Amino acid sequence: MSTTTIDTLRFATAGSVDDGKSTLVGRLLHDSKSVLTDQLEAVQRVSADRGQDAPDLALLTDGLRAEREQGITIDVAYRYFATPRRRFILADTPGHVQYTRNMVTGASTAELAIVLIDARNGVVEQTLRHAAVAALLRVPHVVLAVNKMDLVGYEQAVFERIVEEFAGHAAELGLPSFTPIPVSALVGDNVVDRSAHMDWYEGPALLEFLENVPVGADPSDAPARFPVQYVIRDGEVRWYAGQLVSGSLRVGDRVTVHPSGETSEITGISVLGTGADAAYAPQSVSLRLADQRDVSRGDMITAGVDAPVLAQDVRAAVCHLADRPLRVGDRVLLRHTTRTVKAIVKDLGGATALLANDLGRITLRTAEPLALDDYAVSRRTGAFLVIDPADGATLTAGMADLT
Questions:
Q1: Which of 99, 125, 191, 307 is the most buried (most CB within 10 A)?
Q2: End-to-end Cα, the chain, rounded Å
Q3: In terms of Cα–Cα distance, which of 291, 297, 245 is closest to 267?
Q4: CB–CB of 300/337 below 8 Å?
Q5: What is the rounded distance in angstroms from the CA atom of residue 282 to the CA atom of residue 279?
């Protein structure tokens, strides 16, 4: 008897205020029959209380009370649903400029981003900001959903003009490609089912595209990266526990411990307490080495010729997340995988300070070397957080640029 593996796609939505992000997600959930009866009844009640004739599907994702009262999205609303072809984890992110950091949170693990545009307004400043975030985070796939096509008479010329304008900016922002889809979230055109109103459009409906877009490469095919989380002592034997974030490791492999550069050989692998000959990302495992090396939490064990870069001057693209500004000369902590080191802010790309929701470039000098990968190569081992040493609050999200 054969079984079919259903994969999972993580995607995020973004767009300017009132472009219809939450309505689009609500329509997607509703028309794909992913809404529970009691959820739909609650939405119908709230909509009726507001004097609306039809259910406001945006309420299916606008979960906070403040959002429902104001009719806006101010937090990241996560939803889980599935079709016979694929499972989905979606993040409906805010549109306001002051919540850019929330979009960074929602899109940081996404394999696809849907950037919404109101067909009546075309490309606006926030559209470009959201496209810039998608490019900054190296989101593999971007959908340009031109919404509210019903309000422009389903005109092909309007759609093509918006796509052409967006394409002109995309290259400048570092966005290599995108897929444009004309939709009406309110009516349901090209969301789950193809629209009868736009026979000039020959591409897929949104859900059809989401079901068929290639999901990211198998992390076990990448170079082996094993950040040590715990050291377990079993008598005279030491086991190093953590998550293999990429690649694969086998008993007998020669490995290098960073940042010390010491080498050894894997003599044992334990997966959930059971011995194994090999481990594959993203498994959580324990490793035993042939030699008694000085390995501790935060060290990185790697194998193969594609070694990470050992760096103390860390250049990165960043989004500043905190209300407290970040300035040159600030003493901070840098958290990369399981390693936390002291650092100082050397440069902010010419800016005097980074404020909340600012996108920018930064150079940090760390007290100890870090084993980094370029973020363009590995989103897991190329990302880091800048931490306030005084209270442990997250200040900035960084994406290493080692080119």
A1: 191
A2: 49
A3: 291
A4: yes
A5: 9
Q: Which residues pair with 11 in a beta bridge?
A: 90, 112
Q: How many CA atoms lie within 13 A of 207 on its CB side?
A: 27
Which amino acid, one-letter code, is at 349? G
Report the candidate in 101, 100, 104, 76 with the shortest Cα–Cα distance to residue 90: 76
The tokens describing 193, both together, are: 């089912």
